[in-house]
Amino acid sequence: MSARAERRFRVMGSDAHLIVVGGADDGAGAATEHRADESLLDHAQQRLDQLEGLWSRFRPDSEVTRLTAEAGSWVDVSDETALLVRRAVEAFRVSGASFDPTVLGDMIRAGYDRSFDALAEAPARSGVSRLLHGAGDIEVDGNRVRLPAGTGFDPGGIGKGLAADFVSAELVDLGAVGVCINVGGDLRVRGHGPAGPDQGWTVGLEHPWLDEPIALVGLLDGALATSTTLKRHWSVDGEERHHLIDPGTGRPSTSDLTLVSIIATEGWRAEVLAKAVLLRGSEHPFDLIGGTGAEAMCLDRDGRVQATDGFAAFLGGAP
Length: 319
Known about the structure:
The protein has helices at 38-55, 63-69, 79-94, 104-109, 116-119, 159-173, 267-280, and strands spanning 2-11, 14-24, 75-76, 139-141, 144-146, 178-183, 186-191, 201-206, 213-219, 222-228, 233-236, 239-242, 245-246, 251-252, 257-264, 295-300, 305-307. By secondary structure, the chain is an alpha+beta fold. The strands form 5 sheets. The protein has an 8-stranded antiparallel β-sheet with strand order 1-2-6-7-10-15-16-17. Strands 3-5-4 form a 3-stranded antiparallel β-sheet, with helices on one face. It has a two-stranded antiparallel sheet with strand order 8-9.
């Protein structure tokens, strides 16, 4: 067995769970080769907090808020935010516009005008916003970003996965031999799992209705993201709404799929594709991911499960 350390906390409006694996256990619980200690967890938590500070649309001093406030003008941003916007533009194209980072106005009009933690404390209401779509016209030049005038940027649907990519890579660079970062169901693993060298990670896919996982998935190095309409939802004037906006209608999705899980090489890509597949519905859910190297499983509102042919290779736990 390998030494391990783990931590749970709230960040980015979600529950986070971090596991760091070090070298062989010396019998006294200490890693003899590589680090698996509290300092790595401290670094990971601080970095995730920092990224939330840069990317949260609910913080008035974040770079994302500034991009929206200064839409139409060039804005200097950090390396992290510049990459976030590049990845969001790439995701817009890869998803055939099913993922659109400029649906901020639609989110506000649907009542998602504050953090979900804040929504739980007071009744939601339909918001007013004149913000438009315009992801195809976002410009990035080095560390400068320009949104089209009249648009707003929302990193929901990509930010948690990209944050997990960032921080997991940093922890390996700092000496961990294995890392698992789960931020609100968007998960990234690198290196070996707690069972030892050449042993991967076992992840349970949570069932939305039952107290047991839909399946156990084994990963060596990669990402798993799950998108569902059943968790972040609220009521406005008696109408149930959720956070998955269909860019084609500007309203919460009416897809008959309730949950989609994607396995991909990177967290941001898995997160984006999970939402995009869910929006497509159960008739042809996987057309979009052909050629991406990703695998998918989905559950519709009647409890029917569909999966890509390659998804089965990951079932059963750690490889």
